[in-house]
Amino acid sequence: MEQKFPALPSEEETTQAARFTHPELHQCYLKTRWAMRDILGNYLATAPAKIQLRYAKLGKPELIPGAHALDIRFNLTHSGDGALFAITLGTEVGIDMEKVSQKPRPIKLAKRYFTAEVVTQLGELPEAEQQTALLKLWTQYEAYKKAQGVGLRGGEGLLPLAIDLTTDQLQPMPTDTGDASDWLIAQLSPANGYVGAVVIENTIETMQIHHIDYDAYDFS
Predict the structure, then answer these.
(1) Can you tell me the distance from the alpha carbon of 48 to that of 68, in angstroms, rounded to the nearest whole number?
(2) 63: pLDDT strictly greater than 90
(3) Residue 86, CA atoms < 13 Å, CB-side half-sphere
(4) What is the pTM of this model?
(5) For the purposes of burial, counting CB atoms within 10 Å of the CB of 41, is it exposed (0-12), middle (13-18) or buried (19 or more)?
(6) For residues 110 and 216, which has the higher predicted lDDT (pLDDT)?
(7) How many CB atoms lie within 10 A of CB 188?
(8) Phi, psi of 30 (to 5 degrees)
(9) Smallest Cα–Cα separation from 32: which of 100, 84, 89, 94?
């Protein structure tokens, strides 16, 4: 029997959830937000329903300042049947995940967001590999924008992203002049058929990755 997740505790989250009119998408939204609250609750020693959240101007969730003892920063993304959640202490973070699918004209899309060097590297790949490579670049791009809290069109323009990042390893994110920026970036491999990336302010040295199954979790 398909699990039904309860309504979220805040009015703002209830409004957000109502945007998903398809029952499956609605339940997916509820599950990922309850999972986010549960993970935060483990760090804050607070029941999931009592986590005090607000949503920034562009929809990025955050703890209400002063409501909890720890200055936890976090970000959430979901695609297909999976979700990724990144959490730090006092450090901005952004995360993104995409389900691999074949869509036409990856080079045309890449020219809108990436430097000419990156577009050239993408075009040199076999056609069968271009879409997955593009999605890896896109997750880097979106994770960076989410970490900054500026939206997809905000912040810098074309970014010098790397098409061959080492998976699950943080490394400095370069600037357009080749210098290391104030951010760290890692390409993620969350599950078969998915790609992801995380971007964190350059104040930490390592990250931990945990896999949690919330399909049978009781949030009631």
Answers:
(1) 13
(2) yes
(3) 27
(4) 0.89
(5) middle
(6) 110
(7) 25
(8) -60, -45
(9) 84
Judge whether 143 and 95 are in contact, CB under 8 Å. yes
CA distance 9 to 155: 33
- Centroid of chain to Cα 122: 23
Domain covering 96-201: architecture: Alpha-Beta Complex (3.90)
Q: Under a CB-based contact definition with an 8 Å cutoff, are residues 73 and 36 in contact?
A: no
Residue keyed to tokens 């209400």: 64
pLDDT tens, residue by residue, 165-174:
889 999 888 7
pLDDT at 2 over 80: no
Token pair of 14, please?
């209830």
Beta bridge partners of 196: 97, 188
**Residues belonging to the chain:** 220
As beta bridge partners, residue 184 has 172, 200
Please name the residues in contact with 5: beta carbons below 8 A apart, sequence gap of 6 or more: 27, 30, 31, 34, 219
Helix H or strand E encompassing 78:
strand 72-79
194 strand-pairing partners? 99
β-strand partners of 188: 196
**Every domain of the chain and the residues it spans:** 10-67, 96-201
Q: How does pLDDT run across 87-140, given as a tens digit for each residue?
A: 999 999 999 999 988 776 788 888 888 888 889 999 999 988 899 999 999 999
Q: Closest Cα partner for 146 from 209, 88, 103?
A: 88
